[in-house]
Specification:
Growth Hormone, Chain: A; 2 domains; 19 helices; mainly alpha
């Protein structure tokens, strides 16, 4: 595998940690800025919207740049945004910083597109699993440590460290990314033809439904776990870390399964396992070992979807991969927001302990999209790419 993929993984670790650590320290932020918890939570919304809207725009605007320049721009935006957040005296400046960080998240789509362009199709899944390994590690290590630092030393400390880490990644990019690495895309040229493929829309829809299902629970994962099995803050952190470790295993196994069985069959297996765990989680109440086991299998299944989804899109249009992958990232954040809103509206009815059942229909619908991938109406070329 190209060594640069491990640098991409490091950058995704920095971006994943910086993007999501605020969710664990929203209360200290609200107290420090003298705003409500709900208002502080809008920092996550601002990041999600910026990633969904601005990142694809920047992918297009930088399509004819060398990839080194585009990567440096992404990391610069993320660094400056994190620094603004760390120094923010009020909510407005915090939101501004988060918007800049969201724009900088264009790095993830750009790196994914470069990854698939550097390896043979048969190795695409494993290559993507390396690139996205950093995202998984951020859940297992970065976010729990960030939350602990935020409660012990104040929320500005982990956010400031995220800015420092991003600056370090920017300096490394200047040294490690080849200056002659060409663009992997061509802006809007050919985009309409690529985006009008039914298979592309199915992948985007599947990503949307997948993340609605996941974040109908994980937007409130702390209260959910406490409702199932009361635990100390330390036990809760360890449980979340175990989920993150399972996610690392899922990211790697998903890449292997994609290359071994193809994107469609790999996605079917992971989604089926995820749906089963969503159905079983409320039934583990009062049995912490079963809750932990269910959560870890869920983590493996959920993260195992990353490589097959990315590989499927890249296989449908290699030249438009950067923009297609960036828009797929938009579906991630739209799904995250929708999952939070939908489950939040039903907490009073179902309670935290049964919240995973809210996402169950969305998981089943995501699984249903795979049936349409296999319909005879797909072209032979598409069918062969589906694996």
């Amino acid at each position: 595998m190209p060594p640069i993929l491990y640098f991409f993984a490091l950058c995704n670790l920095v971006i994943g940690t910086g993007a999501f650590l605020l969710g664990g320290i929203v209360r200290p932020i609200s107290e420090s800025l003298d705003i409500s918890v709900a208002a502080a939570g809008q920092a996550m919304t601002a990041y999600a919207i910026a990633t969904a809207v601005l990142a694809p725009m920047l992918i297009v605007l930088t399509s004819r740049w060398s990839r080194k320049r585009a990567i440096e721009l992404a990391l610069l935006l993320f660094t400056v945004g994190a620094l603004i957040c760390a120094l923010a005296p009020n909510l407005l400046m915090l939101l501004l910083g988060r918007v800049m960080m969201g724009a900088g998240a264009m790095f993830t789509a750009a790196a994914a597109a470069l990854t698939v362009s550097m390896v043979a199709p048969a190795l695409r899944g494993r290559a993507l699993s390396i690139t996205f390994l950093g995202t998984s590690v951020s859940y297992a290590v970065g976010i729990p440590i960030g939350a602990w630092l935020g409660f012990e030393y104040g929320w500005r400390v982990p956010v400031g460290l995220a800015a420092v880490a991003s600056l370090g990644a920017l300096l490394l990019a200047n040294r490690l990314v080849p200056a002659n690495m060409a663009s992997a895309g061509s802006g809007f040229v050919g985009f309409r033809e690529a985006a009008l493929q039914p298979a592309v829309w199915l992948v985007w829809l599947r990503t949307l439904l997948h993340f609605v299902a996941i974040f109908s629970v994980f937007a409130y994962i702390g209260p959910v776990l406490q409702a199932l099995n009361p635990m100390s803050s330390g036990e809760l952190s360890l449980t979340l870390a175990a989920y993150g470790l399972a996610g690392i295993a899922g990211t790697l196994s998903g890449g292997w399964a994609n290359d071994r069985f193809g994107a469609i069959r790999s996605s079917a297996a992971h989604l089926t396992l995820m749906v089963l765990m969503m159905a079983l989680l409320p039934l583990t109440q009062g049995r912490i070992s079963l809750t932990l086991l269910t959560l870890m299998i869920w983590g493996m299944a959920g993260f195992g979807m990353l490589a097959p989804q990315q590989s499927r899109l890249a296989g449908l249009s290699a030249t438009q991969a950067p923009l297609l992958l960036s828009l797929n990232g938009s579906m991630v954040y739209v799904g995250t927001a929708l999952g939070s809103v939908i489950s939040g509206a039903l907490i009073g009815t179902l309670g935290f302990d049964k919240l995973s059942w809210v996402g169950l229909p969305f998981g089943l619908l995501a699984l249903l999209t795979l049936a349409f991938e296999q319909r005879p109406g797909l072209s032979k070329a598409q069918a062969s790419k589906a694996g």
